[in-house]
Amino acid sequence: MYELRNIKYKDILTIDHLQLEEGKVSCITGKSGTGKSSLLKLLNSIYVPDSGEITYYGSPLSEIDPIKLRREAVMLAQAPLIFPGTIEENLQAGLKFAEKELASAQELHQVIERMELSKDLGENAEELSGGEKQRIALARVLLMRARVYLLDEPTSGLDENTEIKVLRSFIDESRKNKSTVLMITHSIAAAETFADREISLDT
Amino acid sequence: MEEQGIINIETWRLISAYIFVLILFFIVKARGINRERQIIIATFRMTIQLILAGYVLTLLFAHSHPVLTIVVLIIMAAFSIHTIFRQAGQPLSSHVKKAIIVSMSVGSFVCLFYFNFVIIHFTPWYEPRYFIPIAGMIIGNSMTGITLAVKTLLDSLRSNRDQIEGALMLGATPKSAIKPYVDNAFDSAILPTLNNMLGMGIVFLPGMMTGQILSGVSPLLAIEYQIVVLLGILGSVSLAVILFLLLAVRALFTTKAQLREDF
What we know:
Helix content of chain B: over 70%
CATH architecture of chain A: 3-Layer(aba) Sandwich
Largest sheet of chain A: 5 strands, parallel
Strand order of the largest sheet of chain B: 1-2
CATH topology of chain A: Rossmann fold
Largest sheet of chain B: 2 strands, antiparallel
Number of helices of chain B: 10
CATH class of chain A: Alpha Beta
Number of domains of chain B: 2
Number of helices of chain A: 7
Shape of chain A: globular
Structural class of chain B: mainly alpha
Number of domains of chain A: 1
CATH superfamily of chain A: P-loop containing nucleotide triphosphate hydrolases
Number of strands of chain B: 2
Oligomer: heterodimer
Order of helices and strands of chain A: EEEHEEHEHHHEHEHE
Structural class of chain A: alpha/beta
Helix content of chain A: 25-40%
C-alpha cells in the first residue's frame, strides 16, 4: 500500500526502505525525537520529504491530490483537536471537512459508546477532560470510515484499562471495514495486544 | 479678518495653539512618563507635513491636470502599502506582500472611481479639489482595515497552527481549515468602521463635515457629503479587506495544501 524509499526529512528522519501492508495494524515505537510524528505527516502529505519517494498504491505521493489522499488516509494529530461547539459538532467535523455524508444520531451514539464515553451529544466539547477530548477526536476519525488511519498516540491520556478497551473497539471496527491502521504508541501493552507488526524507529 | 465666510487664523493665534502640546509635555514630564521625544517628533512632523501638504495642494489646485492627479493617487497608494508593511509588526513573506499590494490597489481604486464617477459625479474627472481629499479618505481607511486584517490573520494562524494542520489531516481544504480565522480577521477589520458609523453625529462630528461647516457650507449639504463618504469608506474597507483575505489564503498554503512555515 505505502512504500517508502530512501526517505530523508530534515535531520529528523531517515528511512531506507519501508513497506506497509493493507488491512494490517502496525504500531510505530521509538524514543522521542526519532521522527514518529513526522513519518505519519509524510504519509498524510502534511510534510514533503527532502529526498526519496513515497508511493501510495503504486503512485508517487507527489502526483496524488493531497486533499483526496488525506480523505482516504486520515491522520489523528497528537494533541486532540477540539473545535468550539458541542460534542456532536466535534464528531461531525471530520465528515464535514472531508465533504462526506454526516453521521446519523444512532451512529454518533454508537461511536461514543465504543469510546467508553457516557456523554450527552449536546455537551460543550471544550469543557471535557484531556482524556475525553482524546476519545472524541478518535471517535471523529472512526466515523470517517477511512481506508487508512494514521494515529499519533491516540490514547496517551488514558489509563491502561480504558486504553485497551477503546483501542479494541477502534481496531475491531477498522478490521471490519478492512482499513489499515498505523499507530504511534508508547504503550507496550497496546503494541503487544494489537500490532500485526511493530516498526521501531530507534536506530 | 474674514475670507469667504471663514475666519482667518492669524499667525500668532496659530502659534498659540501649540500651548496644548506644552500642557501635554509638562504632564508627562511631571509624571516621569517617558514620552517627551515622541511628543516633540509628532508635533514637528504634523506641522511640517501639513505645511507641505498645503503648498502641494495649492500647487495642484492651480495646475489641475489628469497626470498630476494620477501621480498623487499612485504616491498615496504606494505610501499606504509601505505603511501596512511597516505596521504589520512582523516580517511578511513576498506572497503576503503581493496580496496586500493587489487588494489595496484594486479595492480602493474600484471604490474611489465608483464614488467619483457615480456618486459625486464632478467634472473634469481629475479635478484635484474633489479627487485628492476623497482618495485620501478612501485609501487611508482601507489601509487601516488591511493593517488590522493582516495582524489578526497572521497572529491567529501562528497561534492556531496545530488546529489548522489538524483539520488538513482530516481532509479539509485550506479554505475550510482556515475559515474561522479569516472570518475573525474580516470582522476585526471592519468593526472600527461600523463603530464609527454608530457614533456618527451624536458622539462626534467628523473632520470633513466640521471643515465644510466651518467654511460656510450648510450643515445639511455637509451631512450629505459625510453620509456618502462614510458609505464609500465602508465599501472600500470591506472590498479591500476581503480581497486581501481571499488572496492571502491562497498565498499561505503551498500547492500541496500545506500551511507554509513562514508567512
